[in-house]
Amino acid sequence: GQGNTIYVSATTGNDSATNAGQFNSPYKTIKAALAAATSGQTVHIGPGTYTENNPVTIPQNVSLMGNDLRTVFVTPQNPSSDLFYVSGGCYIWGITIKNYNANGFAYSSSMSSQNVFVSPYIQNITSSTTTPGATAVMVDGNYTSSISTKAMIVGFFTIINQAGVGVHLINQAYSQLVNIYTIGANVGIWTESGSFCTLNGSDNSIGNIGLRADGYGPIQSYGVTTGYSIGGSFLIFNPTNPPHVNQVVIIPGDPN
User: Fold this and answer.
1) b/e for 123-143, b at 16 or more Cβ within 10 A?
2) What confidence score (pLDDT) does residue 76 get?
3) 144: closest CA among 178, 177, 176, 119?
4) Please, what is the end-to-end C-alpha distance for the chain in angstroms?
5) So what's the pLDDT on residue 256?
6) Contact of 120 with 157, CB cutoff 8 Å
7) What is d(CA 27, CA 15) in angstroms, rounded to the nearest whole number?
8) Predicted pLDDT at 180
């Protein structure tokens, strides 16, 4: 590339060129450009449609910058596999992802030991697919190390996933979500197994369920209730750990 920028062009690129990645000699595929990218570099995607041999991994601290979401379209060679795998500190901007059947952006199980202290940031994206269950952003807390933030930041994302899912968080994952617009999705935002998110300025249109939450994560504390509730409040005697924000209370024998 030139400086810290690596260039990709669907029309003029050549992955096998000796000087591939230069402005006047770009790569042809996003995957080849990302394979050559190192921390601190930017991969710039020129206008065009890119059918990629997915999954495509975005390395740590690498930015993937499309020309804009109206001119850059990414589709999978392997529709049933995830499209992009993200890493700590990576940044994605300005593309449209289409016609995938699995996850658009996700952590990879093969990279589950990675430490993620700076969350991947996914911004200014459009998703369009018609496969039931296809998920634009999947955040699985088990696919990062135990000391990681287990998070992604997502903003300005239009998700036209017909009968699919907008953003899905599982296994104590976390996300900051701003301006998420899901259209025709079965579930817009879905958290489960101890996950949670902040959600601002967003909308679910046409779809079946806007917000869904299921289950809970590992038990963090145990205690015994004492006395009777007063006005709906009750005391828990000698909990093993103090309670924290976003925790739920489970009472044995009560299914709710």
Assistant:
1) ebbbbbbebeebbbbbbbbeb
2) 98
3) 119
4) 57
5) 74
6) no
7) 5
8) 98
What single letter denotes the amino acid at residue 238?
A: N
The pLDDT value given to residue 1:
60
Mean pLDDT (10-residue bins), the chain, 256 residues: 88 95 97 98 98 98 98 98 98 98 97 96 98 97 96 98 97 97 98 95 95 91 87 87 83 80
| pTM for the whole structure | 0.93
Report the C-alpha gap between 11 and 122 in whole angstroms.
Answer: 26
pLDDT of 234:
82
DSSP conformation letters of 3-55:
TTEEEE-TTT--TT-TTTTBTTB-BS-HHHHHHH--TT-EEEEPSEEEEE-S-
Sequence length of the chain is 256
Nearest Cα to Cα of residue 81 among 159, 135, 158: 135
> Look-up: residue for tokens 């093969």?
110
Q: Which of 196, 156, 146, 162 is nearest to 180 (CA)?
A: 156
| Cβ-contact 163, 133 below 8 angstroms | yes
Which pLDDT score, from 0 to 100, does residue 2 have?
66
Nearest Cα to 157, choosing from 208, 121, 107?
121
CA dist 158 → 84, 155, 178, 186 (Å)? 17, 9, 11, 15
**Integer angstrom CA distances of residue 7 from 32, 39, 71, 74, 157:** 11, 16, 15, 16, 24
Amino acid at 189: I
CA distances, 246 to each of 41, 87, 177, 190, 197 (Å): 37, 26, 16, 15, 10
